[in-house]
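Fold this sequence, please.
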Amino acid sequence: MTGFQYDKDAAGVVTVTMDMDGAVNSMSSAFLPALRDTVEKLEQEEGLSGVVVASAKKNLFRGRRSQFTVSGYTGKRGDVLQ
């Protein structure tokens, strides 16, 4: 998964660390395929107890929109998914 590091610990928590090419994580042509691959991998996980989305950059994400849609969920900045 280019741009996304994926690590699952013994407690079943997956940490997805965004580290896209460039100075910031941005919605480039590589971003959406990497996100889609990550979500598909998460959907296949057994024993998943949580997901942490982190950034290897100073900011989590830069984009022109403050809203995103993943697998039918529309989230806003600061949302916590449970």
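The domain at 4-76 is CATH 3.30.300.220 (GMP Synthetase; Chain A, domain 3). The longest helix spans residues 31-44.
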